[in-house]
Design a protein that fits this description.
Chain lengths: 403, 403
C-alpha cells in the first residue's frame, strides 16, 4: 500500500486531534498504509506539499495529542472550488508524486464539500486509486445526518459547567442586590451550544437563532423573573436574530476580509436593553469566545472516544478501494449508554446543510429546553479522560506546523 | 463550650467553601464547640439572625462542599463601620443570645476589617468570652503578609489553562491570516491574576496595573510581534491604567450604586487601539468575568488543601481564649513542595492594604514575568482534586441560603 494523508480544516475543537490520533494509532495496530502523513494547514498546505510524517508517533505523544485542543496540523480557510480545475489537478499530481492513496479530511461542512469535490473530480476524469474520506468535527453540532458530532460534547460540557459555576457566583448576594448574568455562546445558525447550557438546570432564559427574538417579550420575561427572585441567568447564541433576520448583535457584527459575517456582542446588546429598561443596574456578561471550542482540560470522555474511534474506523473502512467521497457518521443505539455505531454516507449529502436545534425541544417564553433535549445531550458530556499534566497544566503537543 | 459561627463575605472564589468544610470537619474530629453554625450572607444575615446548623454535616456533603464554588453561605456587601456602635452592640447581643463563643469570618480585606473592628469593640468595652478570627480568601492574591491566599491558586490554574488552550486555537491558521487575541482577567489594583497567565509560557504581552500603560509603546510592541510571527497573545488586567491613573477601560468603567468602581472593557479598549492602528483585522477578546473566580471544575489541589487546612487550623487555634482579632496566615517553607506553615497575625494589619505584584518580577516592554515569578506561582497550581460528578457535571452543594 501507499501512504495515507490526514489533514484538518475549519474551526478548532477540543477533540479534533483525537480523530487524528485514532487514524495514526489504527494504522500502527493494523497496518493498512506504509506511512501516515499529516498535511499542514489543510488543502492550502497540501497544495504547498507541506507534510509531516506521523507513522511512528509514540504512544505517549498519541495520548497527549488526544487531549490537545485546536488543530495540531493547522487549519485553513482556503476553499477548494469545483470549477478550479487547476487546484484539483495539482492535488492529484501531488498525491501521485508522493504515492498517497487515501486522504482523510477532518472538518466540518466545507471540508465535506472538499471531500465530495475531490471524489467527483476523480470520477469524472476516470482517475482511480485514490480515496477521499471525511471525518466530521464541529462544536456546533449542526452537521446533518450524523447523530453525534465529535467536538460538540466537550464544548457542551464546558458550557454547562461554566453556567453552573457562574450561576452559583451570581447568587451569593442577598435579594436586595438585583443581578443579571448573560452567557454568550457560539452558534451562528444553530442553537445547540447555547442549549447545552441547560444541562446545568439553572438557565432562566435561553435565546437561540431558531426562534425569532422579540425585545418586548424578552424584557417582560426578565422582569417577571427579577420580580420573583431578583437574579436572572440568561444564555444567548451569537446568532440570535429578529424576525426579519437582523442579528441581535447587529451593532457589533461586521463582515470580515473573507466575506464571512463575524458575529459578536449578542450578550452586550441584551445587556444594553436590560440597562435601558432599568431591570437591573448589575448585568454581567461572559462571552466564552474561542475558549468554549478549545477547552480540552474539561473534555468529555464520551466525546474524545467518539472522535478517536471515528479515526480508527475511517482507516479500516478505507481498505475498500471503492470507498471514496464518503463521510463517517455516527448513530446511537442506546442513548443512555452512549453505544455508538459508525457508518458512512455520501459527503455530498452533508456539505452545505445545517441541522438546526429542533423547535419542539424548545420551551415557550425562552424558558429553555425540554426533557427530550436533555436526554439527547446528557450522554454526550459523560466522563472525564485522565488528563496528563505537566507543571500543573495540561500537556499538549506543540502544533506540527510550529515544530 | 458554646457554639461557633462561620460566615463568608466578599467576592466568591473556587475554594472559599473548602475553608468552611475544614472548620466543620475539624470540629467533628476534635470537638471544640457544641455546634457549628453558618451565618447566611455575612454580617448582614448575622444581624438578621439567619443561621444554619452545620455541626453534623455528612462526609459526602463535606467533600462536595469543597468542590462547590462561590459562597455556600452567601456573601454581603454590608460594611460594618467602627463608629456604628448600634450594629456592633447588636452583634454582641445576638452572639450572647445564641451562646456563640467564636466567629470565623472567611473573606478578604473588608472582612479582616470586620474581624478587627469586632475585636477592638470587645476590648474597648471589656467584653470577654468572644473570639473573632479571620480566614483569608481572595482570587486577587493581594492580601498583605500571607504568602499564600486561598482562591488565587485555582483562579491562576484556570487562567493559565485557558491561555494555553486559546493560544493553541489562535495559531491554527497559516501566517497569511494575522490574528490577535486579548485575554482580560480580574485585578483592579494588582496584576497577580493577569500574571498567572504567564504560567502557560505563551503570553506575548502582559499589561498589569502596577506598570503605567503607554499606548504607543504597546502598539509598537504589538507591531513587532506581528511582524515576527503574525499572531500575538495579549493578557491584560481589568485595572490596567495610564500614568495619570486613568483606567485603560475608561470608556466602559462606571461607578456602581455602592460607590465602587465597576471595571470592564480593558481588553475592548486595547482591541479598539489595535483595529485603529490597523495592526490586524482580527482581534478576538475573552473577558473571563466571574468564571475565573468560580472555576471549581479546575481547582488546584494545592489551593483546596491550603483553604481546607486553614479552616482546620483556625478551629484549633481558637481553643485559646485570648485568640481574637487575628487572621490565619500561610508561610511557605519549601516552595517546590508547597509545604505550608500556618501562623496568625493581627487582622488589623491586613485590612485595607494591597500587596502589588512585585515590579522586579516583571520583564520590560510588557514581555511578561521573570522566572522568580513563575517559581512563586507554579506550586500554587499543582494537582487536581478528584471531582465528584453527577450527570456529567461537577456535584455542588445548593447554597444554604437557597435551601
Amino acid at each position: 500500500m501507499g501512504k495515507c494523508l490526514v489533514a484538518q480544516s475549519g474551526g478548532p475543537t477540543a477533540v479534533i486531534n483525537a480523530t487524528l490520533a485514532g487514524i495514526v494509532r489504527s494504522n500502527q495496530l493494523n497496518k493498512v498504509y506504509d506511512a501516515v502523513w499529516g498535511g499542514l494547514h489543510g488543502i492550502e498546505g497540501i497544495l504547498q506539499e507541506r507534510f509531516v510524517d506521523l507513522t511512528e508517533m509514540s504512544e505517549e505523544e498519541n495520548l497527549i495529542l488526544r487531549q490537545t485542543p485546536a488543530s495540531a496540523l493547522g487549519a485553513c480557510r482556503y476553499k477548494l472550488r469545483r470549477q478550479n480545475t487547476e487546484d484539483l489537478k495539482a492535488i492529484f499530481q501531488i498525491l501521485d508524486k508522493h504515492d498517497i492513496d487515501t486522504m482523510f479530511y477532518i472538518g466540518g461542512n466545507d471540508s465535506m464539500d472538499t471531500v465530495a469535490a475531490l471524489a467527483a473530480y476523480a470520477a469524472k476524469n476516470h482517475i482511480t486509486g485514490h480515496r477521499f474520506i471525511g471525518c466530521p468535527k464541529t462544536v456546533d453540532n449542526d452537521l446533518v445526518t450524523t447523530e453525534v458530532c465529535p467536538g460538540f460534547g466537550s464544548a457542551a460540557k464546558y458550557i454547562a459547567t461554566t453556567a453552573q459555576q457562574t450561576w452559583l457566583d451570581l447568587n451569593v448576594y442577598p435579594d436586595s442586590r438585583r443581578e443579571i448574568f448573560i452567557l454568550e455562546t457560539m452558534g451562528r445558525d444553530a442553537g445547540w451550544l447555547a442549549a447545552s447550557a441547560c444541562l446545568s438546570g439553572i438557565v432562566d432564559i435561553l435565546i437561540v437563532p431558531e426562534v425569532p427574538f422579540d425585545r418586548e417579550d424578552f424584557l417582560t420575561r426578565v422582569r417577571e423573573i427579577m420580580e420573583q427572585k431578583s437574579k436572572c441567568y440568561i444564555v444567548v447564541s451569537e446568532g440570535a436574530r429578529y424576525t426579519d433576520g437582523t442579528y441581535v448583535s447587529e451593532g457589533e457584527t461586521h463582515i470580515d476580509a473573507f466575506g464571512s459575517v463575524v458575529l459578536g456582542g449578542a450578550a452586550n446588546a441584551l445587556q444594553q436593553m436590560i440597562l435601558e429598561a432599568e431591570l437591573s443596574q448589575r448585568c454581567r456578561v461572559l462571552d466564552l469566545s474561542s475558549a468554549q471550542r478549545s477547552a480540552a482540560a474539561e473534555q468529555s470522555l464520551a466525546d474524545v472516544e467518539a472522535a478517536y474511534n471515528m479515526g480508527m474506523h475511517a482507516v479500516e473502512l478505507s481498505r475498500d478501494p471503492s470507498f471514496t467521497g464518503r463521510m463517517i457518521a455516527i448513530r446511537r443505539h442506546d442513548e443512555e449508554q452512549m453505544k455508538l455505531e459508525y457508518y458512512d454516507i455520501e459527503a455530498e449529502k452533508v456539505a452545505n446543510y445545517v441541522r438546526n436545534f429542533p423547535l419542539e425541544w424548545l420551551r415557550e417564553d425562552y424558558a429553555g429546553v425540554t426533557g427530550e433535549a436533555i436526554a439527547y445531550m446528557r450522554p454526550l458530556i459523560q466522563g472525564s479522560p485522565d488528563i496528563i499534566i505537566i507543571d500543573g497544566l495540561p500537556a499538549y503537543v506543540l502544533p506540527y506546523y510550529l515544530q
